[in-house]
Design brief:
Helix content is 0%, strand content 47%. By secondary structure, it is mainly β.
Length: 171
């Protein structure tokens, strides 16, 4: 698919309750745009006890978390999740992007993000985050992720690349 090779969640939290994803294996999936394993856009999720491995997408090889809008005050929890061996052009393991608005919070707990590869941000890519987004990471490991150190852009407007573990960018 184009978005979310394994799972796509799009505006799935109208009543305020999170989508619960527990004890799931997302492996060998492909998306031609975003979220090789899973794409969550404007949805609250509780993603636990799961493995996201060997997936590919140009953005967010394993997991892509996108814009949380103010109508659902998005909360995202990743607990005891392994995001391993995924690949992307940006955000090999996990990408979080968009204009996150009031009271959005992301809690990554007891999660392993390892052996992912990308041109930019092998492990985690945080891009364009704004508003009231709070990110908390506890008891987690980011290890052995790889990003190209320097790759010229097509239009010579600077460079992309780097951020083997975490790369944060305003845009």
């Amino acid at each position: 698919g184009v978005l979310g090779g394994g799972i796509t969640l799009y505006h799935c939290s109208y009543n305020g309750d999170p989508v619960i994803i527990d004890n799931v294996l997302l492996s060998g999936n492909y998306a031609s745009s975003e979220g090789g394993g899973i794409l969550s856009s404007a949805s609250k999720i509780r993603f636990t006890n799961s493995v996201v491995e060997n997936n590919y997408a140009p953005s967010g090889g394993g997991v892509s978390l996108q814009t949380i809008t103010d109508y659902n005050h998005g909360d995202i929890y990743l607990g005891n999740v392994q995001i391993i061996n995924n690949a992307a052009l940006s955000g090999g393991g996990l990408v979080m992007k968009g204009s996150w608005q009031t009271d959005a919070s992301v809690w990554i707990d007891r999660t392993l993000i390892a052996n992912n590869t990308a041109v930019s941000a092998g492990g985690i890519y945080l891009i364009g985050l704004s508003g009231g987004c709070n990110i908390t990471m506890t008891n987690s490991t980011i290890a052995y992720n790889q990003a190209d150190e320097h790759v010229e852009s097509d239009n010579n407007q600077g460079w992309i690349g780097g951020g083997g573990g975490i790369l944060a960018s305003a845009n």
